[in-house]
Design brief:
The chain is mostly beta strands and 235 residues long. It has one domain (34-198): Distorted Sandwich (Coagulation Factor XIII, Chain A, domain 1). It is 6% helix and 31% strand. A hairpin with a 3-residue loop joins strand 8 and strand 9 (133-136). The longest helix is centred in the N-terminal third of the chain and has 9 residues, at 5-13.
Length: 235
């Protein structure tokens, strides 16, 4: 559903804890998993509250505790196929979506994804024109889908889905991060060299222009949304 900025102001005004969410279900080639079957259970699995500190270790996968990885199954995913995450609630906040992968040996290891190993494979940013301002096509949905790059090498990975909600991002640490990490084993892949790679925490700064941004009063000379993190690796 498409909403331009004036309507998103209305959405933000009525936002409450009921509009917060988690990403407990992995969507794999159209099939939806059970909750937390392949996605590491998150610390906010009851509260659905967001992360607001980009320097926190929670920004990586927001795991509940050290047992989350070992208690989570590993899904077999074919390179080039469509995957995604389903939210526990309608995602009513305007924001930016992205997906990252990190090699993981194995995916259910607590040390997976703890280095500079993450590469971005997809993003969904708000559109902007001088006449309309920011337009959030992604608001009021309950899932997001994307493609695993066809040339990603075979092996086990963490697959990190994220929304950065921007309704309160006009002040430092106001942006809200909703994160989930699925454990996957990629088959049918290629010989690509994914990159650039980043770490979590480390990929973002609280003052990045795509994170610290008053979407209701854009700065003078604004020319469009600047995505945080690295460029997308298309594979």
């Amino acid at each position: 559903m498409k909403l331009s900025l004036p309507l998103s102001i209305v959405a933000a005004a009525v936002a409450s804890v009921n509009s917060h969410y988690t990403f407990p279900n992995l969507i794999n080639n159209g099939a939806m998993s059970a909750e937390w079957q392949y996605v590491r259970i998150t610390e906010n699995h009851w509260s659905s509250g967001p992360i607001t500190d980009v320097k926190s270790n929670a920004i990586r996968c927001y795991e509940l505790d050290s047992s989350a990885a070992g208690a989570t199954q590993i899904a077999t995913v074919t390179a080039g196929s469509t995957v995604g995450f389903k939210a526990s609630n309608t995602m009513g906040h305007p924001g930016y979506f992205s997906a990252y992968m990190s090699p993981a040996n194995p995916a259910n290891s607590n040390s997976a994804g703890t280095g500079k190993t993450w590469f971005k494979i997809w993003e969904w940013a708000p559109r902007w024109t001088a006449s309309t301002g920011l337009i959030f096509d992604s608001i009021n949905i309950d899932r997001f889908n994307f493609t695993i790059p066809k040339n990603v090498p075979n092996g086990q990975y963490l697959l990190r889905g994220e929304q950065i909600a921007l309704h309160l991002s006009g002040s430092t640490n106001g942006a809200q991060f909703y994160v989930g990490c699925a454990q996957i084993n990629v088959v049918g892949g290629g010989s690509g060299s994914p990159g650039p790679t980043v770490s979590f925490p480390g990929a973002y700064s609280a003052t990045d222009p795509g994170i610290l941004l008053n979407i209701y009063a854009l700065p003078s000379g604004y020319s469009g949304y600047k995505s945080p993190g690295p460029a997308v690796w298309r594979g």
